[in-house]
Amino acid sequence: MNFILRLLLTALVVVLLAKLLPGVSVDGYLTAIIVAVVLALLNFIVKPILVLLTLPVTVLTLGLFLLIINAIIIFLADGFVSGFDVDGWFIAIIFSLLLSLVQSILFSILKKD
Fold first, then answer.
1. Which run of H or of E encompasses 84?
2. Membrane-spanning regions, if any (predicted)?
3. How far is it, in rounded angstroms, from Cα 77 to Cα 91?
4. Is residue 59 pLDDT above 80, yes or no?
5. Domain tally for the chain?
6. Cα–Cα distances in Å, from 106 out to 53, 73, 75?
7. Percent residues over pLDDT 90 in the chain
8. What pLDDT sits at residue 75?
9. CA torsion angle for 91, 63, 38, 52 (degrees, to 10)?
């Protein structure tokens, strides 16, 4: 139940960020739910592999390369979901930062309940 609630909250954040950021568009709420599921799968499967492969670069940049990895995950979700579009690298980095920030706030509130 907690996982479904997290997916729905992520979909809501995706819709809100698509309305706020000029380079991000989502066709509808169902598309946002699909984006949330795809992001969860990519973060579970692909992100650890990318982090492991780019560990030396991540250490050299003191962890800032993780922003690029998050942008890559956003672009992969853009490629998998047809109604979700992100226009550029800068927008993808901003989107991933804001998504992570709002998710951490919402999930910490959810964990307290």
1. strand 84-86
2. 28-46, 53-77, 89-110
3. 14
4. yes
5. 1
6. 30, 21, 24
7. 91
8. 95
9. 140
84: left (phi over 0), alpha (psi -120 to 50) or beta: beta
Token pair of 15 as six digits = 């819709």
Q: Residue 84: beta bridge partners?
A: 26
Q: Cα separation of 90 and 108, whole Å?
A: 27
Amino acid identity at 26: V
- pLDDT at residue 111, as a whole number: 80
**Tens-place pLDDT, residues 71-81:** 999 999 999 99
**CA angle at residue 88 from 99 to 86, to 5 degrees?**
55
Residue 34 burial class via C-beta count within 10 angstroms: exposed 0-12, middle 13-18, buried 19 and up = buried
What is the residue type of 104? S
pTM: 0.91
Domain residues for the domain of 90 are 2-112
